[in-house]
From TrEMBL:
The keyword Chaperone does not apply. The keyword Flavoprotein does not apply. Pfam families: DUF3180. Residues 145-167 are annotated as: Disordered. It comes from Microbacterium marinilacus. This is DUF3180 domain-containing protein. Residues 146-157 have a biased composition (Basic and acidic residues). The chain crosses the membrane at residues 39-59, 79-104, 116-136. Keywords: Membrane, Transmembrane, Transmembrane helix.
Length: 167
């Protein structure tokens, strides 16, 4: 499994930012109040990041220590996938909150301090989730084998029986 690329995180953040900006714009154009995330959103994003790291820690300990109990490889893959999905969710939700913040800050009327505080907390919590998820994904990745050769670098005599005949 490939690690989460910076490009996918940037794209998720930009799409989320555009979505957050457009939602607030559409609400304002229809005469409604702008969207403000709930206070629980930043808390849940940070808790999800902490959960990712907590789940990935035994995998890291298993890789680093010979005395640590071995972790089921399927469990490690599931945790890595959770971390990958969490990093994308963190980028998208942080981007959406940043888009809302951008829209609110460009309005001629100053927004309420409570709504801006919640939006800034959501941006920060999205960034914390991305970092925590990337750390958890790193914990679940295997170190490269030093002694193993790539399949492309095999010598003709290493090909094994039947390699030349195609069997």
């Amino acid at each position: 499994m490939k690690r989460t690329s910076a490009l996918s995180l940037v794209v998720a953040a930009l799409l989320g930012g555009g979505f957050g900006f457009l939602i607030d714009h559409a609400l304002t154009m229809s005469g409604r109040a702008t969207f403000t995330p709930a206070v629980g959103l930043p808390i849940l994003l940070v808790l999800l990041g902490a959960l990712c790291v907590a789940l990935a820690w035994p995998v890291r300990r298993s890789q680093r220590s010979a005395t640590a109990p071995r972790v089921d490889p399927f469990r490690a893959v599931r945790i890595a996938i959770l971390a990958k999905a969490s990093s994308i969710v963190g980028a998208a939700s942080g981007g959406a909150a940043a888009g809302m913040l951008l829209y609110v800050s460009t309005r001629p009327v100053a927004p309420a301090l409570g709504s801006v505080t919640t939006i800034v907390a959501a941006v920060a919590a999205g960034a914390v989730l991305v970092v925590a998820a990337l750390v958890a994904e790193h914990f679940c990745s295997l170190p490269p084998d030093d002694g193993a050769k790539d399949h492309d670098e095999r010598q003709p005599d290493d090909a094994g029986p039947g390699a030349a005949t195609g069997h």
